[in-house]
Amino acid sequence: MGKANLLILLVVAAFSACQNQTQKVGQRSEGTEPVKQKWTVDQANSWEEEHGWLRGSNFNPRTAINQLEMWQSETFDPETIDQELGWAEEIGLNCMRVYLHHVAWEVDKEGFKDRMSQYLDIADSHGIKTIFVFFDDCWNPIYEAGKQPDPKPGVHNSGWVRDPGELIFLDENLMPLLEEYVKDILTAFKDDKRIAIWDLYNEPGNNRLGNSSMPLLRNVFRWGWEVRPSQPLSAGVWNVQLTDLNRFQLENSDIVTYHNYKGPEEHQAAIDTLKLIGRPMVCTEYMARRNNSLFTNIMPILKKENIGAINWGLVAGRSNTKYAWDEPIPDGSEPSLWFHEIFHPDGTPYSQEEVELIKNLTKVQ
């Protein structure tokens, strides 16, 4: 079966399930399952009307190699965050997607929340909403608090770490800690208007984890329902082969979020299929120049369809995501074509043509 047909069947199944389950909100099922608190379609549409067209980047300041370096007290860098979000504001971006990490919270719970508040203050001063991400199955499986490694020259995301990574399979006490973490953060910021979306789990099943990510995915939605913040809960679909995970994500997300690094024809096909769900949509990752996923050919489609447009990368820095996923340049020299990112570290655009297009689409003069 082709990928497109598979996705259509998946979405139709999820749509049918959504219609049935909407009637069950507020009813406790048998056993220990919580009351499901998924939004109605009307609630989702009201959120969309309030927020308008979200457009922005996945954000990690150029001074941070990963989430821990961004959020730990020793390396939290509000001055750089303020500068870079100022550059984003100047080209009309109004939303950033920002990864958290439970270890930064575990080491310093109140300090971590204070730094989140500082970040939100800075972002808000630039007219920028935030999508916070809890868990992530991408890149390095192990991590530790404290000083983070230096980047490997020319290697994309050489220091990025999963959350919770391999520890979820090794420590039976971790799941209760993760529950405390998620509920603490959601409770603290459940009514914060500066937060647009809670992205509960980035690319569950990546790194060949497959359905072994399902227990945490189910749990993080359950924890979210038990707090039920005023912002939408979602987990983006990203790989049509992960049918069980995709079905659960689509059935349980308040709004539809997804990743797509393909060219315009394939991206449009994904949009047309996911629109069958009948809920607001946000593309939380796109734009990989080598793959023909560009600002010039994708961002206009997303605006026309009123789909949130969150590209990967704002400013080139320690994450090394200007290099392609699978094309390292060991001497660290400049790639002939940047994979991600909009700005050089000094704030000059990688491509003035791209920046002018973004400013035109966001109506910045």
From TrEMBL:
SUPFAM superfamilies according to UniProt: (Trans)glycosidases (SSF51445)
InterPro entries from the UniProt entry: GH
Protein name as catalogued: 1,4-beta-xylanase
